[in-house]
Amino acid sequence: MSEEFKLELTVRPRRLRAAASRRALVEETRLDPADLIAPLFVIEGDGEPRAVESMPGVFRLPVSHLVAECRELHELGVPAVALFPSLDGSLKDEAGTAALDGNGLVLRAVRAVRNEVPGLTVITDIALDPYTTHGHDGVLTADGGEVANDATVAVLAEMAVLHASAGVDLVAPSDMMDGRVGAIRAALDRAGYSSTGILAYSAKFASAFYGPFRDAVGSATGAGHPPLDKRTYQLNPANRREALREVSLDEAEGADIVMVKPAGPYLDIIRDVRNHTGLPVAAYQVSGEYAQIRAAAERGWLDPGAGRDESLLAIKRAGADMILTYFAKEAATAMSGTV
Ligand code: PBG
Predict the structure, then answer these.
(1) Which of the two ends of the chain, N or C, has the fewest CB atoms closer than 10 A to its terminal CB?
(2) What is the pLDDT of residue 144?
(3) Do residues 181 and 173 make contact, with C-beta atoms less than 8 angstroms apart?
(4) Residues 263 and 286: beta-carbon distance below 8 Å
(5) Among all residues, which ones are annotated catalytic?
(6) What mean pLDDT is predicted for residues 249-255?
(7) What angle in degrees, to the nearest 10, is found between the helix axes of 304-318 and 287-298?
(8) DSSP symbol at 99
(9) What confidence score (pLDDT) does residue 226 get?
(10) If pLDDT is split at 50, 70 and 90, which confidence band does 322 have?
(11) Fold (CATH) for 30-336
(12) Is 207 touching ligand 1 by the criterion CB < 6 Å?
């Protein structure tokens, strides 16, 4: 077709895309460091950070390094961190007893961050998988065949009170037991921690994308027979309505924020949840989502920065108010314009 060919078009959407300034005017979704929450892994000792092999760029941090990382994140405008302990195997047992150790690793980490970076919101995970030899999120039934719901909830409620007493701002039950949000809320209130909030992993799916995280906390090989099967408590990836049912229950039980996890492969669920509740919605861009982008970038198959930003933007566009992401520091650094 020749250059002279002219369509009789009144409407030409490209007008608004013709220059960067015009594209900025009509941009509907914008990422900000304040949207991000950084998940961080903590280890014992005062040695060097230890790389997580399956998550290039992610390290398990001894407490002193963790504090320094939190300070940097705070300065970059990232408002919150979510802490996960990576425990020595010798401290794990069938019942996850170490989760109730009042001087346990994650509690010492919380106290240090609380003291050194007071402005930062500190979130901790409430689940037993970093503490159990089998890697499940709760205690098992007597015959060992199943994760026991109510017995697990009792331990989680106790764990949440312990975390609140260490100064955690938001406890984040990631276990998917029935009734745990209500039990945790009641236990916190009874113990005088009515201002400690609950970030509920409400729509948490039984996902293959948690693989690298299980390497990081050592829950994958704990039982000696991976892959770890959590389908009796985590949601079936095929189910949308059931995800909303979980959100309704957690809201009724007193959740302050509800979460969808994973994020990228579940954008439809994020949108459904956004339309379903007036509560703030969080989404967790999990370890496997991070690893995919990193691995492709290492092979030169996609641009890491652009892939990172687009993946986060899509999650926000779908309806998430906040995103847990291993890219938090890198993305916030890029947004600050210093690189
Ligand atoms: C378990 C928990 C998991 C993650 C956070 N908390 C994994 C699991 O359910 O086995 C995964 C996070 C990630 O993959 O980044 N309580």
Answers:
(1) N
(2) 84
(3) yes
(4) yes
(5) 204, 261
(6) 98
(7) 150
(8) G
(9) 59
(10) very high
(11) TIM Barrel (3.20.20)
(12) no
